[in-house]
Design a protein that fits this description.
Helix content is 46%, strand content 12%. Helix 8 links the parallel strand 5 (125-130) and strand 6. The protein has 15 helices and eight strands. It has 325 residues and is α/β, with parallel strands linked by helices. It folds into two domains: 2-232, TIM Barrel (Alpha-Beta Barrel); 238-319. Strands 1-8-7-6-5-4-3-2 form an eight-stranded parallel sheet. Bound molecules: flavin mononucleotide (FMN).
C-alpha cells in the first residue's frame, strides 16, 4: 500500500503524519520539470527529504525534453528511492503544457519522454498513469507495455480517464488486463479507496496485490491502519484524533514558520473535520486560523463540544471516531 503524491499536500509534515499512522511508501508532491530545471526555490523545496524518511519517491511532471533532461540531472544530486514520472495529472495548468494525462494520451511522445528519463536517472524508475479508455483495454495496454519495455519497475494505474478527473467509477477491468500483460512489472491500482473495504475490493477486482491511497487519506491518516489491520482496526478516539491533528499543525508551523504554516494548515484542518460531526461553525472557525494559539483554543473548543451525539450512532464508515473514555 502506498500514499499517493498529492500536489499541495504531501509535503514533509504531511508525510510524517501519514507515517505515524502506518504509511511507509510515500511520494513528494509532483514537481514541475521546468521549475526544477531553472531552480525555482519553491519547487526545489519540494525535494526536501526528512532524515527520518526511510522510503521516499520523487514525482516529476513535464513534457519538454530539455527541461526533463535538466530536471532529472538536478534530481540525481538528491537522494530518493524511486523516480516516478507523472502521466496522469488532468489539471488544466499541466494539460496545457501537454504534460501529465495529456502526455499520457499521446503514447509515442510519452514513451519518448519516459525513455529519456529512464536513461538518465540513477534511481529505479516508475510511472503513474490513467486508463486511456473505459471499455477498450488496447490504448492503456500499449502505454503500459511501452513503459515496461523501457524499464518501468512499477506502474500505478488510476482507473479513471482524464475527462473524469477524480469522479465516477474506477474501471478495474482495464487495470486487470494490464496486470496480465506485464507480469514482470508491478502494477499498482489506484482510485476510490475511502475505507479498508474499498482497498480489498480494488485489489480483488483489479487483480492487483498493491494499491495506492489518495483522497481517502486526506484528513484520515488512520486509513493506513484500517487497510493493514482489517477487522481488528479500532478508529482513533476523539482525543487521539485531536492529538494527531495538533502534531501535524505544529509541524506545519515549525516547517514553514507560524504565519505561512497556519495559513497552509486551514485546508488540512477542514479535512480532519470533514464528515466527523462537528458542525458548520467549526468549519467557519477553521477557515480563519492564523496562529498556533488560535489553533489550540479552537482544538480545545472542539474537544469540549465533541461531535454531535448522533454522530456516534451512525458515523460514515471512512470517518469513524471512537467516543473518548
Ligand atoms: C488534491 C489532489 C492533488 C493531487 N496531486 C497529484 C500529484 O501531484 N501527482 C499525481 O500523480 N496525482 C495527483 N493526484 C491524483 C491522486 O494521486 C490519485 O490518483 C487520485 O486522487 C485518484 O485516487 P482516489 O480516487 O483514491 O483519490 C492528486 C489528487 C488530488 C485530489
Amino acid at each position: 500500500m502506498l500514499a499517493a503524491p498529492l500536489s499541495g499536500y504531501t509535503d514533509l509534515p504531511y508525510r510524517r503524519s501519514l507515517r505515524r499512522q502506518g504509511c511507509f511508501f510515500a511520494f513528494t508532491e509532483m514537481v514541475d520539470a521546468a521549475s526544477i530545471a531553472y531552480s525555482n526555490s519553491n519547487s526545489v523545496e519540494l525535494l526536501r527529504r526528512g532524515e527520518d524518511e526511510e522510503f521516499l519517491a520523487v514525482q516529476l511532471v513535464g513534457s519538454d525534453m530539455e527541461h526533463l533532461r535538466m530536471a532529472v540531472d538536478h534530481i540525481n544530486q538528491h537522494e530518493f528511492d524511486v523516480f516516478d514520472f507523472n502521466l496522469g495529472c488532468p489539471v488544466p495548468k499541466v494539460a496545457k503544457k501537454h504534460a501529465g494525462a495529456a502526455l499520457g494520451k499521446d503514447v509515442e511522445n510519452a514513451l519518448k519522454c519516459f525513455g529519456l528519463l529512464a536513461s538518465r536517472t540513477r534511481f529505479p524508475i516508475t510511472a503513474k498513469i490513467r486508463i486511456l479508455d473505459e471499455t477498450d483495454p488496447a490504448p492503456t495496454l500499449e502505454l503500459v507495455q511501452g513503459l515496461a519495455a523501457l524499464g518501468a519497475r512499477a506502474i500505478t494505474i488510476h482507473g479513471r480517464v482524464m475527462a473524469k478527473f477524480y469522479s465516477g467509477k474506477v474501471f478495474t477491468e482495464i487495470i486487470s488486463e494490464c496486470v496480465k500483460a506485464v507480469p514482470d512489472t508491478q502494477i499498482i491500482a489506484n482510485g476510490g479507496i475511502m475505507s479498508g473495504f474499498d482497498a480489498e475490493e480494488l485489489k480483488r477486482q483489479s487483480n492487483c496485490n498493491v494499491v495506492m491511497l489518495a483522497r481517502g487519506m486526506m484528513g484520515n491518516p488512520w486509513l493506513f491502519k484500517e487497510v493493514q489491520q482489517k477487522e481488528n482496526y479500532l478508529p482513533p478516539t476523539v482525543h487521539e484524533w485531536a492529538a494527531e491533528m495538533t502534531r501535524h499543525i505544529e509541524e506545519m508551523a515549525a516547517y514553514y514558520g507560524e504565519s505561512r504554516g497556519l495559513t497552509l494548515s486551514r485546508k488540512l484542518v477542514l479535512d480532519y473535520l470533514r464528515g466527523r460531526g462537528f458542525g458548520g461553525e467549526s468549519k467557519n472557525r477553521a477557515s480563519g486560523l492564523s496562529t498556533l494559539d488560535e489553533f489550540y483554543r479552537f482544538r480545545d473548543w472542539l474537544l469540549e463540544r465533541g461531535p454531535a451525539a448522533s454522530y456516534f450512532v451512525n458515523p460514515p464508515p471512512c470517518r469513524r471516531l471512537r467516543q473518548c473514555d
